[in-house]
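Practice problem. Given the sequence and the SMILES for zinc ion, write out the predicted structure.
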Amino acid sequence: MDIELRKRKEIKQETIESSWECDQCGKSTFSTDYDYLVHPRLHLGCALEAENQGHSIKDQYLEACEDIPDKNGTVTWQFNQEDVEG
Ligand SMILES: [Zn+2]
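Answer key:
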């Protein structure tokens, strides 16, 4: 295996992992199941807590929404109104 290629890959992985951090609690979301995330930068639990204090999940999502590298490129982080209203 090409050593230089492997080095680049490791750096990229670190970059991805460091991006996956909750805006609310500052903890990593990288190993959190997708079901428990509103966004790579927002735990569902943290979002619900903030919502109780009058900060809507939609607003939180829009604030967190940036170009986050997906783990595998297949998950899209589109806000779904039904998830909140349902
Ligand atoms: Zn959190």
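Check your answer against the key. DSSP finds four helices and two strands in the chain.
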